[in-house]
Write a structure and sequence with these properties.
The structure is a single chain. The protein is α+β, with helices and mostly antiparallel strands. The chain has a single domain, classed as Metallo-beta-lactamase, Chain A (4-Layer Sandwich), CATH 3.60.15.10. The protein has 8 helices and 15 strands. It has a 10-stranded mixed beta sheet with strand order 1-2-3-15-4-5-6-7-8-9. Strands 10-11-12-13-14 form a 5-stranded mixed beta sheet, with no helix packed on it. α3 crosses α4. The protein is globular and about 50 Å long. The protein starts with 6 loop residues before the first strand and ends with a strand.
């Protein structure tokens, strides 16, 4: 079924649409076939992000803030999580997290303050920096880390890891899954987490890379909001089809697939029919946006600081 989206507000900065839930895209967002955008001025000021608050009004909102590449901050119901926030290798193609945003994260400055959980998809240099991650955990002793064992092993090689290991052990959840293993589920501070290993793009090449897809459910007022972060997942449905029952167990509000899912029939099938998500916003977009992605009409993050706000239906 094709869902139409009606433009409600046409201010020069904020664009508001109805897609089952109310969405507001701050900064420019790519035009999609079902997305009728009003182009306006770009805004990446951190103050535009949703602030943590105990008020009922703000607890009823959720937001996703783009950091760079596959780095995203999600806030919902007063809980904040980060996906793939620390990395330093752009491989000559991808965006790095701007120094202003990276500094704000490390200094616990709004809106990137009071983070509850950091998720790492895999241990490649455009997704993970072991020293930054370790330093962040040591500095902020209330933050939990969920990451593949391969990423934890990289941290363990660092000189100051052994000294910090005892204090960190209760806050680190290492994911050790083989391909075709059943998904695992656990809870950290009322955040429900499902994790499954989906091969890295290029399968069967890079089969040794532990790429973890996370489905995370956060509180949202009297309900909840659910997000899927896919890392560098391969878009072949043969990886997702055996997990059909797992995907149907939980409706997802927003998925963050790598942009190459949008470029193949099979990748689009996974997003539209397999993983049970209401909508998808692409990530891992190169600085030079591929013409095929522009032609696809799909929504994607491309400018660090972009904010997507979501309110319940």
């Amino acid at each position: 079924m094709r869902i139409s989206i009606k433009t409600l507000v046409t201010s020069p900065i904020t664009k508001v649409f109805v897609l089952g839930t109310l969405l507001s895209f701050q900064s420019h967002f790519t035009r999609a076939h079902d997305l009728h955008l009003v182009e306006g001025a770009s805004s990446s000021k951190p103050s535009n992000a949703v602030q943590r608050s105990n008020s009922n009004a703000n607890d009823a909102l959720a937001s996703a803030t783009y950091l760079a590449n596959e780095g995203i901050m999600v806030e919902s119901g007063g809980v904040k999580i980060l996906f793939d926030p620390f990395f330093h290798n752009d491989y000559g193609s991808y965006q790095l997290v701007p120094e202003k945003i990276l500094s704000a994260i490390k200094q616990n400055e709004a809106p990137y303050h009071d983070i509850d959980i950091v998720f790492i998809s895999h241990a490649h240099g455009d997704h993970f920096a072991a020293q930054d991650m370790l330093d962040y955990l040591v500095t902020f002793d209330s933050v939990s880390l969920v990451a593949p064992q391969q990423a934890i092993d990289e941290m363990a090689k660092l000189a100051n890891f052994e000294k910090a290991k005892l204090s960190l052990s209760a806050r680190i959840r290492a994911i050790s899954l083989a391909y075709r293993d059943a998904p695992i589920s656990f809870n950290i501070d009322n955040v429900n987490i499902d994790a499954v290993r989906i091969p890295h793009a290029g399968w069967p090449g890079r089969a040794d890379v532990s790429n973890i897809v996370y489905r995370v459910t956060l509180p949202l007022a009297e309900a909840s909001s659910t997000y899927i972060h896919m890392g560098d997942a391969d878009p072949n449905d043969s990886h997702f089809r055996p997990l059909a029952e797992f995907w149907q167990q939980q409706k997802t509000d927003l998925a963050f697939p790598p942009y190459w899912f949008f470029l193949s029939h099979e990748g689009n099938y996974v997003l539209d029919y397999r993983i049970n998500t209401q909508r998808s916003v692409g990530v891992h977009v190169p600085i030079k946006i591929p013409q095929t992605l522009l032609n696809s009409g799909k929504a994607y993050f491309s400018t660090p600081g972009e904010v997507l706000k979501v309110s319940p239906p």
